[in-house]
Specification:
The protein has 308 residues and is mainly α. It is 59% helix and 4% strand. It has helices at residues 4-17, 23-39, 49-62, 65-84, 112-127, 132-151, 155-159, 190-202, 204-210, 224-237, 246-259, 264-271, 276-279, 281-285, 287-296, and strands at 166-167, 172-176, 182-186. The termini are far apart.
C-alpha cells in the first residue's frame, strides 16, 4: 500500500516531467506537501476531511493570508490529482469550505521621476566606466532594467530568457510565464532596442556558452538575486531612498500605462494575467490620477455661479 510520502514523490515527478512546471513552483509544492506529511506523521488517516480541516486551521495560526492561500492551493491540487488517478475514494476538499477574506495589498510602485533618475544614473555610470569589465557590467545592467520596465515582465521570466526568445529584427520578445503560458511582447522604444542590441553584441559569445540571454561574469545564467543586488546598488547611487525591487518595475509599468488611459484588458495580456481580477488591483493605485482629474478638469471649475 502506497504511503502519503510515496504519493507526494510521484506527484512532484508528475508535475516536473509531465506538467513541466517551473523550478520555483516545484519547490513550493515540495515544501507545502512535505509540511502536510509532517503534520500527519502520527495520524492514522491523512486523507480524512477532518485532518485536512485541522491542518488548514493550523496554517491560519502561523502564516499570513497570502502564504496560507498558496499552501491550500498546493494541497488542493495534490488531492485533485489523487482523485483523478482514482487513488482516493473521496476528495476531502469536496465538502470543505476553504474560502476566506484576504486583505488586498496595493502593489508598490516607483514614481515616474524616480524611474527617470534611476535610468539616468545607469547611463551615467556607463559613461564613467574606467575598465572594460565595468563597461560590460553597465551595458548588461542597462539592458536588464530597460527590459524590465519596457515589458513589465517578471524577474523570473527575464532571467529565463534564451537568446532565441529575443528577435531584434522584428523587436519581438517571447516570454514564458506562469503555468507554461507564452506571450509575445513588442519593443517600441528605440533607446530600449539600442540597449538590447548593444548588450547582444557585447555578450554574444557568453550567451552561446551559457545558453541564456542574460549572463553573469562566470558565463552562467544571471540570477534573480544578482538583479536585486544590482538594483539596490544603483538606487543608492541615484540617491533614491525608496527600497526598489525588480517586481516594482512591473507594478509601475502597469500603473503608468493605466494612467495613460490604456485599456486594462491590454495590460492584462501584457502582464500575462489569466484573470482580469488580478489586473484590476492597479485601478486602485491609479487613484492619484483620478484625484488630479477631479481637481483640475471637472466642469464645475468652469462654472461661474452667482451666489446672491
Amino acid at each position: 500500500m502506497n504511503t502519503l510520502s510515496n504519493y507526494i514523490t510521484e506527484y512532484i515527478e508528475y508535475c516536473e516531467y509531465r506538467k513541466r512546471l517551473d523550478v520555483k513552483t516545484l519547490k513550493a509544492y515540495k515544501i507545502d506537501l512535505r509540511q502536510y506529511e509532517n503534520f500527519c506523521h502520527c495520524l492514522s488517516d491523512c486523507f480524512d476531511k477532518t485532518v485536512v480541516d485541522t491542518f488548514i486551521t493550523s496554517l491560519h495560526k502561523k502564516y499570513k493570508p497570502k502564504t496560507v492561500k498558496r499552501k491550500i492551493a498546493s494541497l488542493k491540487a495534490f488531492f485533485h490529482h489523487l482523485e483523478y488517478q482514482e487513488l482516493l475514494s473521496e476528495n476531502p476538499f469536496t465538502k470543505l469550505d476553504v474560502h476566506f477574506r484576504e486583505a488586498k495589498l496595493l502593489p508598490k510602485t516607483i514614481p515616474f521621476h524616480s524611474i527617470q533618475t534611476f535610468l539616468s544614473t545607469l547611463y551615467a555610470q556607463k559613461e564613467q566606466a574606467e575598465t572594460e569589465y565595468q563597461l560590460h557590467c553597465c551595458i548588461r545592467d542597462i539592458a536588464v532594467v530597460e527590459l524590465l520596465f519596457a515589458t513589465g515582465m517578471r524577474i523570473s521570466e527575464l532571467c529565463s530568457l534564451k537568446p532565441s526568445d529575443i528577435d531584434l529584427e522584428s523587436n519581438n520578445i517571447l516570454i514564458y510565464g506562469k503555468g507554461s503560458k507564452e506571450r509575445i511582447m513588442q519593443l517600441g522604444n528605440q533607446e530600449v532596442i539600442a540597449a538590447l542590441s548593444l548588450y547582444q553584441e557585447t555578450f554574444q559569445k557568453d550567451m552561446e556558452v551559457c545558453g541564456y540571454f542574460f549572463v553573469n561574469r562566470l558565463q552562467r545564467r544571471l540570477s534573480d538575486q544578482s538583479v536585486r543586488f544590482m538594483i539596490n546598488r544603483y538606487a543608492a547611487l541615484a540617491g533614491i531612498s525608496q527600497h526598489i525591487t525588480p517586481h516594482m518595475f512591473r507594478h509601475s509599468f502597469a500603473t503608468l500605462l493605466l494612467e495613460q488611459d490604456v485599456d486594462i484588458r491590454y495590460i492584462q495580456r501584457m502582464l500575462g494575467h489569466s484573470s482580469i481580477s488580478t489586473t484590476e488591483i492597479y485601478t486602485h493605485v491609479s487613484s492619484t490620477k483620478q484625484k488630479d482629474i477631479l481637481i483640475h478638469k471637472h466642469p464645475r471649475n468652469l462654472m461661474e455661479v452667482n451666489e446672491g
